[in-house]
């Protein structure tokens, strides 16, 4: 019997994360024997999507063998709005199961898992908990929720219930899997490790940076670009990255820092200036997801500094495989997911162990040496293909989750 799954995603379809992480995986899954449905939650659904746009997107996804449905996303007040969306998602999922359209509910992260658990309580369906991180701990680490607050406690209870009741678990890192097993939360054979992967068809050969860069701070000709791609708030350490860049700039006068982010540009610029980076030496702005590979192709180093808290055992920053796929050596601080082991074993970057001036200076020396290594781009690309290829790693492991679900007779 063909497996049919409903992928529950608490984001809108147009979100860059959905375009670069969710849909590519689902296309890989749909190319197998699995029938794939997708439910997203769209902010301001009626205002953001015209009927014609909905029809066009539905048809486009159907051509990829993905059946798309959408519900309205509600934001405020936070807890009641999320609770309402959970009920709406659970109701939709239960109806799909009862109608025989799906037999598996695949929950991407915690809120969708709440929907899956509620639907499972009233139907006979199997569930996959795709744990994208330790949500409550991350929010506490970022200062969003006080540890022990009502939202924190609710999400931790949900997390424990999801881990215990799900038929299969997906985690992003080996460290997270090992922690779950060591703490007795789940057996190893219930867990699949699938890091954030990249679609290599989006990446041109090294050096073909494309024309998109000419409209955002120049084409970079003659520059030594250091790039950061992603959010600059929460757990990410923009000021420390700015201080690291100063060390690079002191050694390489052509150095230029490019921050690709949808976060407010003026706030990010203020942080960089506070770190001592001159306004002429950096650019901050957002670019479409499809243009990011071109920007990365024009850089020499990729940055990823993040608070090394407990919750980061579960983190697989998407930017790291993206940098490697573009041939960029990575500069990351220690303690983030499986990144330490990757960088040290593959020799594709530099690990920053402390953020004091001496440590940043040492890291800058090492990073510049790597950037000038003629073999580095090929080594980065090779590591990215072996560890993060969407088809040979991500797609294969997602299909393994469903194969093992069937073999277990869950």
Biggest sheet statistics: 7 strands, parallel
Unreliable segments (pLDDT under 50, ≥5 consecutive)?
208-219
Q: What's the total count of β strands?
A: 13
Strand content: 15-25%
Structural class: alpha/beta
Report, as a whole number of angstroms, the end-to-end distance. 14 Å
Q: Could you spell the SSE succession in H and E letters?
A: EHEHHEHEHEHHEHEEHEHEHEHEHEHHH
Describe the strand arrangement of the main beta sheet, using strand numbers: 3-2-1-4-5-6-7
State the assembly state of the protein chains: single chain
Tell me roughly what share of residues is in helical segments: 40-55%
Number of helices: 16
Radius of gyration: 22 Å
Dominant shape: globular
Mean pLDDT: 93
Q: What attributes does this structure have?
A:
46% helix; six-stranded parallel beta sheet; 410 residues; seven-stranded parallel beta sheet; alpha/beta; single chain; 16 helices
Commentary on this structure:
The structure is a single chain. The chain has 410 residues and is of the alpha/beta class. The protein has 16 helices and 13 strands. Strand 11, helix 12 and strand 12 form a beta-alpha-beta unit.
Task: Please summarize what this structure is.
This protein has 16 helices and 13 strands. The protein is of the alpha/beta class and 410 residues long.
Describe the protein's topology.
Blueprint (H helix, E strand, L loop, with lengths): L3 E6 L6 H15 L4 E9 L1 H4 L2 H13 L2 E8 L4 H21 L5 E5 L1 H13 L3 E5 L4 H7 L8 H16 L2 E4 L2 H9 L8 E3 L30 E6 L8 H14 L3 E6 L4 H10 L7 E4 L6 H6 L3 E4 L14 H7 L4 E4 L5 H8 L2 E4 L4 H15 L4 H13 L1 H19 L2
Parallel strand pairs: 1-2, 1-4, 2-3, 4-5, 5-6, 6-7, 8-9, 8-11, 9-10, 11-12, 12-13
Helix pairs in contact: 1-16, 4-5, 5-7, 6-7, 9-10, 9-14, 12-15, 15-16
